[in-house]
Structure to design on (102 residues):
Protein backbone atom coordinates (compact mmCIF):
# COMPACT_ATOMS: atom_id res chain seq x y z
CA UNK A 1 0.00 0.00 0.00
CA UNK A 2 1.20 3.48 -0.69
CA UNK A 3 1.14 6.10 2.06
CA UNK A 4 -1.87 8.40 1.93
CA UNK A 5 -2.31 12.03 2.78
CA UNK A 6 -3.58 11.39 6.32
CA UNK A 7 -1.24 8.66 7.54
CA UNK A 8 -2.44 5.71 5.46
CA UNK A 9 -1.02 2.25 6.07
CA UNK A 10 2.63 2.05 5.02
CA UNK A 11 2.91 -1.72 4.82
CA UNK A 12 3.37 -3.43 1.47
CA UNK A 13 1.76 -6.61 2.80
CA UNK A 14 -1.45 -7.27 0.85
CA UNK A 15 -3.00 -9.05 3.83
CA UNK A 16 -2.33 -6.32 6.41
CA UNK A 17 -5.78 -4.79 5.93
CA UNK A 18 -7.36 -8.15 6.74
CA UNK A 19 -5.49 -8.72 10.01
CA UNK A 20 -7.44 -7.90 13.17
CA UNK A 21 -5.47 -7.24 16.36
CA UNK A 22 -5.90 -9.87 19.08
CA UNK A 23 -4.66 -7.31 21.61
CA UNK A 24 -4.05 -3.56 21.75
CA UNK A 25 -1.60 -1.79 24.06
CA UNK A 26 -0.82 1.86 24.58
CA UNK A 27 2.82 2.66 25.24
CA UNK A 28 2.89 5.84 27.31
CA UNK A 29 5.37 8.68 27.11
CA UNK A 30 8.48 8.47 29.32
CA UNK A 31 7.01 11.04 31.71
CA UNK A 32 4.33 8.61 32.92
CA UNK A 33 5.59 7.65 36.36
CA UNK A 34 4.14 4.15 36.86
CA UNK A 35 4.68 2.79 33.38
CA UNK A 36 6.83 -0.26 32.62
CA UNK A 37 9.50 0.24 29.95
CA UNK A 38 8.00 0.19 26.43
CA UNK A 39 9.80 -2.95 25.25
CA UNK A 40 8.76 -4.84 28.39
CA UNK A 41 5.10 -3.97 27.77
CA UNK A 42 5.36 -5.08 24.13
CA UNK A 43 7.31 -8.26 24.97
CA UNK A 44 4.76 -9.26 27.59
CA UNK A 45 1.83 -8.62 25.24
CA UNK A 46 3.44 -10.55 22.39
CA UNK A 47 4.25 -13.51 24.65
CA UNK A 48 0.54 -13.95 25.30
CA UNK A 49 -0.31 -14.17 21.58
CA UNK A 50 -0.51 -17.37 19.61
CA UNK A 51 0.87 -17.99 16.12
CA UNK A 52 -0.93 -15.96 13.47
CA UNK A 53 -2.17 -13.32 15.89
CA UNK A 54 -1.52 -9.59 15.71
CA UNK A 55 -0.67 -7.04 18.40
CA UNK A 56 -1.53 -3.38 17.89
CA UNK A 57 0.86 -0.97 19.61
CA UNK A 58 -0.12 2.69 19.99
CA UNK A 59 2.24 5.46 21.11
CA UNK A 60 2.78 9.20 20.92
CA UNK A 61 6.56 8.87 21.07
CA UNK A 62 8.38 8.43 17.77
CA UNK A 63 11.41 6.82 19.45
CA UNK A 64 9.17 4.10 20.89
CA UNK A 65 7.90 3.31 17.40
CA UNK A 66 11.44 2.89 16.08
CA UNK A 67 12.65 0.89 19.09
CA UNK A 68 9.68 -1.48 19.04
CA UNK A 69 10.00 -1.99 15.27
CA UNK A 70 13.71 -2.92 15.42
CA UNK A 71 13.28 -5.15 18.48
CA UNK A 72 10.23 -6.99 17.06
CA UNK A 73 11.99 -7.72 13.76
CA UNK A 74 15.10 -8.99 15.56
CA UNK A 75 12.91 -11.32 17.62
CA UNK A 76 11.30 -12.80 14.49
CA UNK A 77 8.01 -10.90 14.51
CA UNK A 78 6.76 -9.10 11.39
CA UNK A 79 5.62 -5.49 11.18
CA UNK A 80 2.57 -5.79 8.94
CA UNK A 81 1.20 -2.28 9.38
CA UNK A 82 2.36 1.15 10.40
CA UNK A 83 0.28 4.27 10.57
CA UNK A 84 1.06 7.77 11.77
CA UNK A 85 -1.56 10.46 12.25
CA UNK A 86 -0.39 13.65 13.87
CA UNK A 87 1.50 12.66 17.01
CA UNK A 88 -0.01 9.19 17.33
CA UNK A 89 1.65 6.15 15.78
CA UNK A 90 0.19 2.68 15.45
CA UNK A 91 2.09 -0.53 14.69
CA UNK A 92 0.64 -3.92 13.82
CA UNK A 93 2.99 -6.74 14.85
CA UNK A 94 2.32 -10.23 13.51
CA UNK A 95 3.39 -13.36 15.39
CA UNK A 96 4.26 -15.85 12.62
CA UNK A 97 5.07 -18.78 14.94
CA UNK A 98 6.18 -19.63 18.44
CA UNK A 99 9.94 -19.45 18.79
CA UNK A 100 11.83 -20.89 21.76
CA UNK A 101 14.29 -17.96 21.91
CA UNK A 102 11.71 -15.28 22.67
Amino acid sequence: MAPGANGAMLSDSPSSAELKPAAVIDVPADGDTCARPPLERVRQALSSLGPGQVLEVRTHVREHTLTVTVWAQRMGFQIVGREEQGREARLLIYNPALLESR
User: Anything to note?
Assistant: The radius of gyration is 13 Å. Residues 16-94 form a domain with the Translation Initiation Factor IF3 fold (CATH 3.30.110.40). The helical segments are 38-47, 62-74.
